[in-house]
Design goal:
Blueprint lengths: L3 E4 L3 H14 L2 E6 L7 H5 L2 E4 L11 H11 L3 E3 L9 H9 L3 E2 L4 H7 L2 H10 L19 E5 L9 E3 L5 H12 L3 E5 L5 E9 L5 E3 L3 E7 L2 E7 L6 H18 L3 E9 L5 E7 L6 H8 L3 H9 L15 E8 L1 E2 L5 E2 L2 E3 L1 E3 L3 E3 L8 E6 L5 E3 L6 E9 L2 H13 L2 E3 L5 H9 L1 H5 L6 H4 L11 H21 L19 E7 L2 E9 L5 E8 L8 E4 L10 E6 L3 E6 L2 E10 L2 E6 L2 E7 L14 E3 L4 E6 L6 E2 L4 E7 L2 E6 L4 E5 L7 E2 L4 E7 L1
Parallel strand pairs: 1-2, 1-4, 2-3, 4-5, 20-21
Antiparallel strand pairs: 6-7, 6-8, 9-10, 9-11, 9-13, 11-12, 12-15, 13-14, 15-23, 16-17, 18-22, 19-24, 21-23, 25-26, 25-33, 26-27, 29-30, 30-31, 31-32, 32-33, 34-41, 35-37, 35-40, 36-39, 37-38, 39-41
Helix pairs in contact: 4-5, 11-12
Amino acid sequence: MIRRLLVADRGEIARRVFATCRLVGIETVAVYSDADADAPHVAEADYAVRLDGSARSAYLRGDLLIVAAQRSGANAIHPGIGMLAEDPEFAAAVADAGMIWVGAPAKTLGTLRSKTETKDIVAEAHVPVLPTFTDPSEVTSFPVLIKPEGGTGGTGMRVVRDASTLAEAIAQTRREVGDDVYCEPYVEDVRHIEIPIMADEHGAVIPFGERECSIQRRYQKIIEETPSPAVDPGLREELCRAAVVAVRAIGYVGAGAVEFLLDSDGDFWFLELTPTLQAEHAVTECVSGYDLVRLQLLVSEGGSLPMPGPPPIRGHAIEVRICAEDPAYAWLPATGTLHRFHVPDVAGAFRPLAQPGLRLDAGAVDGSTVGVHYDTTLAKLVAWAPTRQEAARMLASALTRTQLHGVVTNRDLLVRVLRHHIFRTGDVDTGFLDKHPEVFAPLLSAVDAVRISCLAAALAGAAGRRATAPVLGSLPSGWRNVPSGWQTVVYDGPVGPVEVGYRMNRHGELSGWWMRAVDPEELDLAGLGQAPVVDDRPRTVVVHASDEKVVLDVNGIRLTFNVHRVGAVSYVDSPEGSVGLRELSRFPLPAPEAAEGSLIAPLPGAVRRVLVVPGQRVRAGELLLTLEAMKLEHPVHAPSAGVVASLPVHPGAEVDTGELLAVLDPE
């Protein structure tokens, strides 16, 4: 029996496991790096143990985790959903230490470590698989997909469409993953379907329907749902039968997911068996009613699964991963302080819901620091409803009204996908984001769209200053005894610098306002503060204005704006979307100019690879170096042909945003 459980992971998955442990009476132990000392999962555990080592490696040191379990008196270890969950050496070490391993057996993990060996076993069991090529000379038709032999999470995967680039692509993947690679045919316009399964040591294997995971970026899922809109009862039975056959052929025990590719004709091929709980397990819990973590703990204790067969599907569930990244800029990870994180109308968290509603599994809270060391995922938000259309609508509405302040996220992209007419029809595949670039636009993506939010921010700022004024604080904001000029403020917003001007009468009423885009070169020039000649502002009445809330009547329609100011930034949330507006100084200090040809770090991280030396000639687009941040590698390419004049960084160096990486002398 598990008495005290150590979770060898962090963030929302650690909180998820702890929630079930509290329900079943198991004591909990958290582990943390120095970067996570104040993380929510640490505070929620009964005991917490600090891990030595760097923030990047602390959670991957199996020896440190076993020592932490022994020190804290834990008699079991749950590996979470990271790399350790797939590590046979760690699983064996836990068993050798006399503790219960909550995961697949070490021997099975050893088999699954080799993707090609796993495919061979499954193929012998007559489950459809795609051909595998380990020798580049065997590849005779294109496109093909290069995959690392022991890879996970999409790392190193790339599509090759002609023979001339195959060798270099294989070499690049090998450099990235440090492992053998193989090729398989790249099937266009396919869906990513997985069958979550639970298997006990007594021979029971239970499939839990299917999950649609086709909305992906960088081969990583960002939206998952169950059931799939492309799977009918007959196909579901075929997929589940194939998954059970694959699990039995491999001898798998525990929680996992059998992953398939599915084409428009209903043909499918086995991809891999993922030996973890899976990040998207919450949607399965919603429609099945079962606590999968509880079943996972039961199986690890040697118990039998309590259900006789696959549970029926109840309604529809969709999950989105809210990530700290900017989709419009090559999914660049974002760091900083999450000043506010509030999702409205959440029915529950970290456990199955009793009835349809919203479920939030979050690893971050108000005030959390988002660093560069870990995955970009902040939270997973799930909508469970009687139908797919209701679930998508509920989820999009909740995301639109969510307050996410301080860190750039993919929230707007998720809303646009959920509201996209193609997504609503269910006609999606793994290339959805490439085919529909319109979903990358912010919800408030034009000057006209942000203009009312800018006015609300300006009015809230003025109200805040009046509330704290040491003298004459009772006078309305902007009050003048005689007509005077416009009150103006310049913000840097999603469409660049914008200026908003407004005028109040002696009764504190808005008598006029305007807004215009500003050329960045005009910011230090005279002439700002002048109303545009053509003013097409909507008729606007201020119903209420305080430092945190502004209510405006715009052409007879009342809108409420919540304004949260942090330093010089005003975060404005309204039914139309959210926007962050940084107030710009009228007299900015001159910034030092970078030398011509300077390449600066777009984000904080560690220099992983440096592929050039000073004095080397490079071509336009040539890869110069890579940065590693949030478990992803980010390339830095030469913007033009030239000579590397300076290279002040080296592999392993830590850099901050804006730090000089190289100087390229253009030819």
